[in-house]
Amino acid sequence: MEVLRNATVAVFGLGGVGSYVVEGLVRSGIGCLHLVDHDKVDVTNINRQLIATQRTLGREKVDVARERVLDINPHARVECHPTFFLPENAESFDFARYDYVVDAIDTVSAKLALVEACGKAGTPIISSMGTGNKLDPTRLEVADIYETSVCPLAKVMRKELRARGVERLKVVYSREEPLSPRAEEMEDAGLSAASGAVGTRKRQTPGSVAFVPPVAGLIIAGEVVKDLLKESSSR
After folding, report:
1. Is the pTM of this model over 0.70?
2. d(CA 220, CA 226)
3. Where is the THIF-type NAD/FAD binding fold domain (predicted)?
4. Which of 172, 184, 187, 215 is exposed most, by the fewest CB atoms within 10 A?
5. 108-121 and 152-163 are packed helices; what angle lies between their axes, rounded to 10 degrees?
6. Are 99 and 123 a contacting pair, CB within 8 Å?
7. pLDDT tens string 124-137
8. Phi and psi (nearest 5°) for 147?
9. Quick one: CA dihedral 41, 46, 47, 50, positive or negative?
10. How far apart are CA 14 and CA 7, in angstroms?
11. In whole angstroms, what is the distance from residue 138 CA to residue 212 CA?
12. What's the angle, vertex CA 56, arms to CA 52 and CA 60, rounded to 5?
């Protein structure tokens, strides 16, 4: 418990995955959390994000998450960063301060920058792959990025990380084939059901459910805790 109490973990992204990562970490005794997210709680978050309720709509996610952390453990130390992590602002974060980093953000360029920044600082990182358009939480696995399959986001990450010379990355991903939108939903989104061609409207946002992203988040929290304790015991 002393090891966990003295640990500092940064969680980038407080959505369906990240909000449950924070929950698992604080309830496991992690003493210091850095929370990074620029978004505000939206009504569309209520089906899957722990911090999203009718009372928190419109509030900064980092502020809501901080309050919940302190409600669970008043002695926890919480630092909020209400900003989007981007390659352009990566240098504003001191990654050497963190004992572990959790990547629960959606943008590929930001995920890659986060992995590279942790690599330079020698800080352990675990990354969440895609949980959208999935219905089976039992298909989630922990693996190295180069051992993944099926997940479209993992495929992109494998290619980009290999090009950057990154040799390994612990991830949580799902082997479940992503579901496809129904034909009428594709037409509403401006897509052709036959060809998949994009019309004049935006690409459809992936669907999400209440029981896949949270499971991914708790798995990640468990990996962080186990790795911190393993590192401590090997010293």
Report:
1. yes
2. 10
3. 2-231
4. 184
5. 50
6. yes
7. 999 999 999 999 99
8. -105, 5
9. positive
10. 19
11. 9
12. 90
Residues in the chain: 235
Burial of 43 (0-12, 13-18, 19+ CB in 10 A): exposed
Please provide the distance, in angstroms rounded to a whole number, between the alpha carbons at the two ends of the chain.
Answer: 16
pLDDT tens digits for range 37-80: 999 999 999 999 999 999 999 999 999 999 999 999 999 999 99
**DSSP letter assigned to residue 207:** P
Domain 1-195+205-233: homologous superfamily in CATH: NAD(P)-binding Rossmann-like Domain (3.40.50.720)
Q: Exposed, middle or buried, 181 (CB in 10 Å: 0-12/13-18/19+)?
A: middle
For tokens 């939108």, the residue is 181
The two three-digit tokens of residue 230, written as one number = 């393993």
Q: How far apart are CA 10 and CA 12, in angstroms?
A: 6
SS3 content of the chain, % helix, strand, coil (to 5): 40, 15, 45
Task: Pick the most confident of 52-56, 182-186, 189-193, 205-209.
Answer: 52-56
In whole angstroms, what separates CA 216 from the centre of its chain? 9
Name, in order, each residue with C-beta under 8 angstroms of 233's C-beta and a sequence gap of 6 or more: none
Beta strands in the chain (DSSP E): 8-12, 32-36, 77-81, 100-103, 125-128, 140-144, 170-174
Query: Measuring CA to CA, which residue among 173, 142, 139 is closest to residue 155?
Result: 173
